[in-house]
Amino acid sequence: MRRTALLASAALLTALLPLGAAGAAAGADDPAPVPVDRFEGEVPFASQPAEGIFTWGGDSDDAPALRLDERPDAPEGAKVLAGTYDISGYGGFTHDYAADRPAHDWSAHRGIRLWWEGHATGSKIPFEIKDGGANGEASELWTTSFTDDFTGWKQIELPFADFTYRTDYQPVGGIDHVLGLTQMWGYALTLPTGAKGAFALDGVELYGRADQSLRAAVSTDAAVVPVTEGGTAAVRVTVATTGAAPLDQPVTVAYTTGEGTATPGKDYTPVSGTLTFPAGTASGTSRTVRVSTLKDRLAEAAETIPLQLTVTGAKAPAETPQIVVDAHGLPYLDSRLPVKKRVADLVSRMSLAEKAGQMTQAERGAMSAPGDIASYALGSLLSGGGSVPEPNTPDAWAKMVDGFQLRAQATRFQIPLIYGVDAVHGHNNLAGATIMPHNIGIGATRDPALAERTGAVTASEVRATGVPWDFAPCVCVTRDERWGRSYESYGEDPALVKSMETVIQGLQGRADGSDLDRNDKVLATAKHFLGDGGTAYGSSTTGTYTLDQGVTEVTREQLEDIHLAPYQDAVDRGVGTVMPSYSSLDIEGDGKGAVRMHARGDMINGVLKDRMGFDGFVISDYNALDQLPGSYPQQVTASVNAGVDMMMVPYSHAKFTAALTDEVKAGRISGKRIDDAVSRILTEKFRLGLFEHPYADTRNASAIGSAAHRDVARQAAAASQVLLKNSGDLLPLKKNQKVYVAGSNADDIGNQTGGWTISWQGSSGNIIKGTTILQGMRNAGGDVTYSKDASAPTGGYDAGVVVVGETPYAEGVGDVGNGHDLRLSAADRAAVDKVCAAMRCAVLIVSGRPELIGDQLGAIDALVASWLPGTEGDGVADVLYGRRAFTGQLPVTWPRSEQQLPINVGDASYDPQFPYGWGLTTLSRAPAGGALTLRALGLAATAAEHAHAARTGRELVTRARLIVQQRIAGRGMTAAAAAPFADADHLLLTGRYGAAVDRLTAAYRAA
After folding, report:
1. Which stretch is the leader sequence (predicted)?
2. Which of 317, 388, 918, 934 minimizes the number of CB atoms within 10 Å of its CB?
3. pLDDT of residue 28
């Protein structure tokens, strides 16, 4: 039976229902129930675009098994929908209406109901309905639930008034956030997890008559209304209807000031009364309630005055608005005092619960009840990867953050939130932002000043959206390119990583923190402390990861020289926060074995804070607490006592604050330790100027994605390109050449920007505003023909450009061995083979790490490591067509085979395809010379070193490197030449210019 027939014959079908179902909760004027599912076979097991019922789950084995059972006890008809489940993640089933037909109108009804066979499990069963949008999989999700606390069949009624908008997940991020009920696409039911079970349901239908409260709602302009002592608070009360129709019935709102922490008659003048909105009132009409506060001469914390609203004829506001008399006269509010004194005063006034709140960071998606910000005195919120407002615009970001910030004003001391994001290569969660090359490409530029400029652009764009804190930069040292986070590192050499930490000044400004209150600076985060780039292949125990979150096994000397070195530089640069790694550290001979970094007090307290003098605060990684051994209270105690000051607990802020306060009361965490953590957090909030200016300063928002910002990204993209091979000087191309362009990554902005772009993992396709490499070549004036798979005829071209590489990934999802390898796809290899067999060709590899291409290298005339250049493909075109010279150098060693991994500069056995530091140039005048020239350069470099003439020393070494590269490129790379060549770049970065030229001379002789 078709759905249209079902709806048309609703009255007939109602007569078939059991008396209990037809009559339950039915009023005399109620319309007949309208069936949605009878489960008699009229709706097939199918999925979109057809109408049907289908299952889903977090893992392949999480989806339930469904069947239609004939049962004599069926509440409606002869059959019921039955099934079994065994769910570890999440799972359930959906009924979607056909996507190629109009949506359904449920607005005439009070709610939706179903028969459920109870098993008294006590499980809560979430039930969702799908409202608006293009189809059932691109609609808003509205949710409620019922509890299986009974046995046998029971009809469950779910009034539409009980459904709330899902804040933790929306397939498209929201349509209009209004449950309109006029364009409904179906429903979904989520089954319990953690134990095997069976279920049965029947007779899903719409019931009852809609009342006006479903179409009309009363709201206030804000849930929190701050007012200075002695001022008058104005609370605007608005009535609005779905579809903006006038009221068809009157709405009244009785108001009265209730009992808060403020004292009536002393702190404010009580008010009460009634607001009336007669029938015919236009939607959007407002009335104002005013409450006058009284001034005295006392210094006081903030005090609250609830404004109780009783609504008749419409849906009441979800929350009681709170008028807040601002804190005043207390020393911590005096911006003239030193930060240290302000912090001490505030900490001395706070309760344990308030201190625990400051140590807690929750995800914005967890704020389905935004009042939790004040209830738990939360110190921080974050947007995880892909957690964005709808629409994803600068203005929506600022309004979202300001809305959360307003909630913090309802706390006693009005301590502002500090909001954080992972802006790891630009404001990468924001559509339209300027996206820089990932760190691996920035390392390839060897340009600390340019790195600083990229940080400054990022900071400006992030702060303009109301966000004062960036979880960047990653100062890890990548030692194995099988690691799925390799591209988050500046390179394999700690000296290179340290040289790129100028980005911290770009983000924060001056090292003393005095620039943090500027509207174009943000608090930076050095991550991930410690050794995350050194995890051993196969050591991870997180899901299917092979390296990420695994174990770093090192000697004490290796730990100091490789992994710790960048953190001292970050501390010296004044970095405000540090984030520990998910990984474990196993130091040879210390007797501790492998210990998770979030519990390594010897490293966090002992080294970072005590020895290095870090005075900022330590923020945990996302849910990292849960990976520690022991019970939850033991995990909390271990991490806090190890020195973690703020815990990123995205969806468990209530659980964490309760456990933390209990552990302090039990004496397992000292009050002194809590005060230290809170003092560190508050210090950064004061430095950021959040107490004086908690809300977004959007004056720089017009510069987000601006030409000036994109020009910085373009320069970075150009400087990051590493020319590995250039036989016959194929590059740069000439504009009068006919160029054949192919490959999967030539015209894909998603692949070009990589992971951590719009979403956590990133994605292929047109996901963000920018210029692809193909578009950049066309913009440069090139005569270009494009065939992605190289299927177009290849005759008549002067040169080919094949752009290949990886698709996006993030973290351990991208680990080699976790569905990834270091080889090009079959399609990419085929494109390279076809184009390079037909014409002289250049191959660009767009990737987060080296790709193995040795078996095709002989047929390739020019090879470029393009890394992940970001949104500005024009920058890649700039070097392809000679507008800028190729100057980039390898930040990591390019291996010949996967069996060589890990391979790094300084290894005893070192025979790569291309060594660390390699990078040919297309400068118009390449330096000439031989052994005698190198000897003279060595003497001059030594003199520059002794004179501390860094710029001169670098220029001399660069000249020597280019001479040596020319010789090696002409004769072929050998292990004898590769090792000293790579050593030279490390020596250059450590200021040993004479020794660098000596090693280059050795490479020259070995070539």
Report:
1. 1-24
2. 317
3. 57
